[in-house]
Amino acid sequence: FSPTEAETAVYNQVSAVLEEAHGILAELQSYNGAGQEIREAIQNPGDLALQERAWNAVCPLVAKLKRFYEFSLRLENALRSLLEALTSPPYAPMQHLEREQALAKQFAEILHFTLSFDELKMTNPAIQNDFSYYRRTISRNRLNNQQLEAENEVNNEMANRMSLFYAEATPMLKTLSNATTKFVSENKTLPIEDTTDCLSTMACVCRVMLETPEYRCRFTNTDTMLFCMRVMVGVIILYDHVHPVGAFAKTSKIDMKGCIKVLKEQPSNSVEGLLNALRYTTRHLNDDSTSKQIRALLQ
């Protein structure tokens, strides 16, 4: 998809963020943590050499975690620019998605990255352990009036913000959900339907591509299938956060039964993270308006 002249400014801004996204995922994928060093330091509190070894192992990892957190803020700005472009008057959401296909594709790529990042984070307990150890060490040294060099890199205020970010099961998705909710609340003149219709249309496109054999046979590899599934789940979650009654109600413009069925037809190892995202990061799944059938499908 080549951007039109009108799309170029936003497209270039988002492209720069997406280029960085590949490196972030690769770094997270190879993140092994300092579990061994931390265990030895905790078991031998009097051994200064082991304390130093653990600290030296953790500091570069925390610098990495800071980079991931700062990237989430850039991702938030990119999403905001895309939402503005894809919902601005006078066009309806469907017209926007047809006219600005390059931006719609970037929106999909942001969601694909977000769910990929969160799946990796969910299955890597080392992230929380490393960061907790870092904070405990800094607190202990502060009590002893020692200032550590690493604090210049991640000071107390930054550590607090990072702590809130990594405490979330799906931190990137939470960042995007908050950003979408904020976008809607700040744009009072924009009908909320313009945003939710844009999201529900994308969910519908993904579902149709996944469940229709003639489209699905064009997917040459499993990565394309995964891309479609992640984007579908991503827009469902954003819709559920922004729409007053959410994605699971009868009046929702998203065919939740169809979307969940499509996911459940795939091998469980490739979709379990996505089903968990629907179970645990949506807002309205447990509302009274959600049918028992849909809840049972997500059991």
UniProtKB/TrEMBL annotation:
InterPro entries: CYRI, CYRIA/CYRIB_Rac1-bd. Its main location: membrane. Keywords: Lipoprotein, Membrane. GO terms for cellular component: membrane. It holds the Pfam family CYRIA-B_Rac1-bd. The keyword NADP does not apply. Residues 2-295 form the CYRIA/CYRIB Rac1 binding domain. It is a lipid-anchor. GO terms for biological process: regulation of actin filament polymerization. It is found in: Membrane. One of its GO terms (molecular function) is small GTPase binding. Signal peptide: none annotated. Belongs to the CYRI family. This is Family with sequence similarity 49 member A, like.
